[in-house]
Every structure is written in structure tokens, then in C-alpha cells.
Amino acid sequence: MTPVLIKSSDAMDELVTQLKKEKLIAVDTEFQRETTYYPRLALVQIATDSIVACIDPLAFNARLALQKILLDPDITKIFHSCSQDLEVLFYYLGAIPAPVYDTQIANALLTEHHQIGYAALVENELNVQLDKSQTRTNWLQRPLTEKQIQYAGDDVFYLYQLEQKLDEQLHIKGRKSWFEEESANLPNDEKCFQVTPDSLWKRVKGATRLNRNQLAIVQSIAVWREKLAQENDKIRKNILADDTITQLALTPPEDISSLHQFVDRRHNISNEEKQKLFDVITTARQSPAEQCPDNRFDTLGAQEKILLKKLQHMVNEKADELGISSAILCSRKDLEKLILLPDEPDQAQLPGLANSQNWRYRCLGQFLINAVKNAK
């Protein structure tokens, strides 16, 4: 199907009238964020069984019209691996589209492919090989080429067909309830797209090799950098590179003039911000040990490692039986948390396996809990 490029409010209004009649639409976005903190929306593609439209938000203000469709609770939006699309649309629309049907999740509950890519899924399920030539294209360039428009349109055209096929398989296997449980965990709050300030040090490459006092400096600088990146809509490294942050933590400046060997003119940081940076470093150096970030982690003892292997074997066997990936059933990290619980584990302590109505708990949860209890 040849996609229609929507470049005006009048054309968009006609599309909205058509889409308002639908209960199900496929959605995809094209965006770029290589040089900016916030993603820049370049294109929104929408498809039904009879429409494929590519909406150009750079040609006109499409916000209000898209809100009418993408925020309509009576229209289910089909995505593939939706988290980035939802983030982009959240910043553009001011709210998160819902309800959502994610074909990557549906496929993960049917096959051993936990995080399959869109092109591979289309080929597996529809026997169609997608053109990948525009994967790295500049979606902010104008005018868009016919090849770009067709590529973008294909993403949603086949996505609509995938939903029908996968949903039928979920019903046949009795796993639609599993899918609904997984869908309930999709981003549904703006906090999902906000960085947690207390853990910003973890985003600094090379920080984990530092001691706790040095991490306090890294954390303070990372918070300062994050605020500046948001205010200036720049990626973090264009404010201050990770290796510069770790150098400042290893050899913190004794005075403001010493800071200049780390932060010079090429960083384009005002004197006021340099002073703030020096102040946060000075304050961080005085942090009590108990307030410093903790990069220590619990390690399993010899017997606990034996138990971990036993639990992993149980997970792998059940995953093979179900025909799904062990990663979606229960991760190694979740098993380690289960083993390291200080008291005998019970449902209240296991968010991933706790609810007796949860599909993971019904499949495996109680067996894992019993195995850990018997080993303690």
C-alpha cells in the first residue's frame, strides 16, 4: 500500500475523521536525538487495514490532531518495542498514548525470541523482507524522499497485520491473559521517562571502579550535568564527558582556577556554572561515608552458587516446556535476589513472582520459592 504523506492541517483533519472510527491502529515514529537531550519527533506513521499515513510534524503543528487519536482511550495503538516511541510521543503530546499493544511482547510470550527486532518478526511471521536501507537515514531532512516515505509506511503497514496474527496465536495458546499482565507494566506515567537523580553516577562510564568517596563527587557532578543538559537540550557528553568527570573525582580541584584544566573554553560553560560545579565538588568531598553512593554488591557464596545453578536449571526446563525464552520467565538477577533475601522468601518479598494470579508465579514461582526455602 502506498503511504500518504500528511503535510497540512486540512489533510490531517480528514485523517482524524477517518481514524476516529477505528478501534485499532498501528503506530510508529521516526526521531533523532544524537545531539539533543530530548528526542526530536520527525515523523508519525499510522496504519489501519485500509490507510497508511505518514504525518510530518515539521510541516505543520500536528499536536492537537494527534492527541485526538493517540490519546483516545477507545483506540488501541499497536507498536513494536514501544518504550522509545512512547517517550518521544510523551514529550510531543504531553501525555503517554494508551492503551498499547506491543508486538514484541506478544511474540516473546509465543516463541523463544525475547526481544526480536521488527524486521526479523515480519520475516518470520509474514514471510516479507523489509528494506533496511533507510535505517540510518536523517529523518529531520526535508523534503523526505519517496524511499524514506515508503520505508516509514512499511513499518506500520506490516505492524497492523502482525497484531492480528500474534493475537490469534495468544488466544489459541491461552496466553492472552499473560500478555495483558505484561502490557500493564508498560510505561504509563511521566516518571518512567525521568532520570532518577540518586543513581546518576551509574550513567558515568568508568565510575564503578572508584571508591565511595570518589563516587560522591561523581554523583554530584552528574546531577549538575543533568540539569544543565536538560536546560540546554544537549546530550550529556556535550556538557561534560564521562572521563572528565572521573578525572575530577580522582583529582578534585582545590580552587576554582584548578578547575580550568578540566573545564576550558571548548566546553562553553559559563563562569557562573563553573562556580556551581566547583561548589558541588567541594560539598561532595565533605560527604559522610554513609551518604556516599554504594557500588558494593552482594556476592553469592559457594553453596548459593550451587543453588543458583539449580534454580536456573528449573527456569530453563520450564521455559523449554513453554517454548519461550528463559529471560522473560525469570532473569538471573531475579534469582540472585531471591537467594539473597535475608529471611525465608514469601510472596510479599517477590515483586516479580509474588501475585498468585501472576502468570510467572503460576508457571514457576512457588517451585522456586520452595527450592530456596528447602536450601536454607
The first-to-last residue Cα distance is 61 Å
Q: In terms of quaternary structure, what is this? A: single chain
What value does the Rg take, in angstroms?
A: 25 Å
For the biggest β-sheet, the strand order reads 1-4-3-2-5-6
- In one word, what is the shape? flat
Report the order of strands and helices: EHEEEHEHEHHHHHHHHHHHHH
Approximate strand percentage: 5-15%
Q: Give the overall pLDDT as a whole number.
A: 91
Q: CATH class of the largest domain, please? A: Alpha Beta
- Which stretches are low in confidence, meaning pLDDT under 50 for 5 or more residues running? none
Please name the fourth-level CATH homologous superfamily of the largest domain. Answer: Ribonuclease H-like superfamily/Ribonuclease H
Short overview:
By secondary structure, the protein is of the alpha/beta class.
Kindly list the characteristics that best describe this protein:
376 residues; 3 domains; Nucleotidyltransferase, domain 5; DNA polymerase, domain 1; flat; 6 strands
Describe the protein's topology.
Blueprint: E1 4-6, H1 9-19, E2 24-32, E3 40-47, E4 52-55, H2 63-70, E5 76-79, H3 83-93, E6 100-102, H4 103-108, H5 118-126, H6 146-172, H7 176-183, H8 212-232, H9 236-239, H10 242-250, H11 256-259, H12 271-285, H13 302-322, H14 326-329, H15 332-340, H16 359-375
Parallel strand pairs: 1-4, 2-5, 5-6
Antiparallel strand pairs: 2-3, 3-4
Helix pairs in contact: 1-2, 5-6, 8-10, 8-12, 13-15, 13-16
Walk me through what this model shows.
Strands 1-4-3-2-5-6 form a 6-stranded mixed sheet, with helices on both faces. With 376 residues, it is of the alpha/beta class. Helix 13 packs antiparallel against helix 16 (359-375). 33% of the residues are buried. The chain is built from 16 helices and 6 strands.
